[in-house]
């Protein structure tokens, strides 16, 4: 009997499974936006220093536009999308002190696994937009202040000589599980003290393909040479502003030599090694909301001897 094959990625991916309409066609319709921001049916999500407010540990606080306007001017509202006819906005209230907040704030990663796929994806979108606005208050060309337009999806330089338009950006990054036969490589970041071992990740450089970025990052961080690279899936990662593109890669030279700066320790793990490490609490896997965890778990769920199509 031929060995089983593996190809598809696990369907569960936090922040990436939202099926809401982003309403892009309405962003420049001032009359429609004014109407929605005057409607008591619309929902506004206050966001404070990139943290959303929650009524409890699992329920995001939403306000009517009228109530939200008591916290900040609605000209700051960012259109997030439309769900079953209801329009949703994010509103930055970072100018308030923490003791003035109407509810407890939470970092999205702390609560994401308790949210629906749709809500986690929409709030991830809102967090990414919040970071982008904060980072583009001034024009990168001339230094003049910028002003938000198009329902928060454009910032324009207010210098009439410049008037450069700034659009939301995301930074492409690769994240890779390196495989060598029946074992995978996991690495520990130098900045953490707990025994959390993860996959190898890094940003794509200008003029570089994703596959070359995978090989370069793995070689730089853990010294392992890789050959065939197999794309698995992508995940928006607004912490602060990345798109993570996940890969499996085949090792061609398994010798490890960590860089000592980003990575302090790396090792090869069989599936049994992972189970043993988890039971002994000498190993912590990547957080459940991350594509890194999915890359590891999908490999762990393969039967022994499985042929990975595209990575033979």
UniProtKB/TrEMBL annotation:
Cofactor needs: Mg(2+); Zn(2+)
GO BP: any one term: NAD+ catabolic process
Keywords: Hydrolase, Magnesium, Metal-binding, NAD
EC number(s) recorded for this UniProt protein: 3.6.1.22
Enzyme class at the top of the EC tree: hydrolase
Record-given protein name: NAD(+) diphosphatase
The reaction(s) this protein catalyses: a 5'-end NAD(+)-phospho-ribonucleoside in mRNA + H2O = a 5'-end phospho-adenosine-phospho-ribonucleoside in mRNA + beta-nicotinamide D-ribonucleotide + 2 H(+)
PANTHER family attached to this UniProt entry: NAD-CAPPED RNA HYDROLASE NUDT12, NUDIX HYDROLASE, NUDC SUBFAMILY
CDD domains according to UniProt: NUDIX_NADH_pyrophosphatase_Nudt13
GO CC, one annotated term: peroxisome
GO molecular function: metal ion binding; NADH pyrophosphatase activity
Protein family: Belongs to the Nudix hydrolase family. NudC subfamily.
Domain named Nudix hydrolase: residues: 168-292
